[in-house]
C-alpha cells in the first residue's frame, strides 16, 4: 500500500463491520487518504427485483438459471422494503445483479480509490463498484479483500 497512493479508501457496504475496520487499518498506512464510509449504498430489494424481472423476461438470464432466478424473484417480492444482500443469492446468478449504487454527488472524479471488501465470493459486488467509480470518472480503482474462498 505504501507504493500505491490513494485519495480515498472505500469499504463496501456489509451487514458486518469487517470491511470498515480493514478500511480504517488501510487508512493508517496512507494517512493522506480519506476513508469514505458512505461512498456506496446498498440497493433495495425492490430495485434489484425490478432489474431481475426485466432480465428474466428478456431472456438475458439463461434457461438453465431460470429456476433459481424465479426463486430469487419470489423471495425479493416478499421483502421489497429491505436492503438487498448478495449473501442470499445463488453464485450463478450474481453476474446478473448489481447490488450497489454510488452515493449521490459522490466525490470520485479524478481520484485514486481503494475498495475494501470483507469477503470475495463471486466478485460481483467489486465489479459493480469498479464500474460505478470508473463511469463517475475515478482515475484509478484497486481492491483489497480480507477473505475469499480457497
Verbal overview:
The chain has 150 residues and is α/β, with parallel strands linked by helices. It has 2 domains: 8-42 and 99-148, Rossmann fold (3-Layer(aba) Sandwich), CATH 3.40.50; 45-96, no CATH class. The chain is built from 4 helices and 6 strands. The strands form 2 sheets. Strands 2-1-5-6 form a 4-stranded parallel sheet, with helices on both faces. Strands 3-4 form a two-stranded antiparallel ribbon. The longest helix is centred in the middle third of the chain and has 13 residues, at 45-57.
Give the SSE layout.
Blueprint: E1 8-11, H1 18-29, E2 34-35, E3 40-42, H2 45-57, H3 66-78, E4 100-102, E5 112-120, H4 124-135, E6 140-148
Helix pairs in contact: 2-3
List keywords for this structure.
150 residues, alpha/beta, elongated, 4 helices, 6 strands, 2 domains, four-stranded parallel beta sheet, Rossmann fold
Task: From the 3D structure, determine the CATH topology of the largest domain.
Answer: Rossmann fold
Structural class: alpha/beta
Low-confidence stretches: none
* Spatial order of strands in the largest sheet: 2-1-5-6
The helix tally amounts to: 4
Rounded radius of gyration (Å): 16 Å
The largest sheet, given as strand count, sense and whether it forms a barrel, is: 4 strands, parallel
> Class of the largest domain in CATH?
Alpha Beta
CATH architecture of the largest domain: 3-Layer(aba) Sandwich
Classify the helix fraction into a percent range.
25-40%
Report the principal-axis shape. Answer: elongated
Strand content: 15-25%
Distance between the termini: 23 Å
The overall pLDDT, averaged over residues, is 90
Order of helices and strands: EHEEHHEEHE
Number of domains: 2
Count every beta strand, where a strand is a DSSP E run of 2 or more residues.
Answer: 6
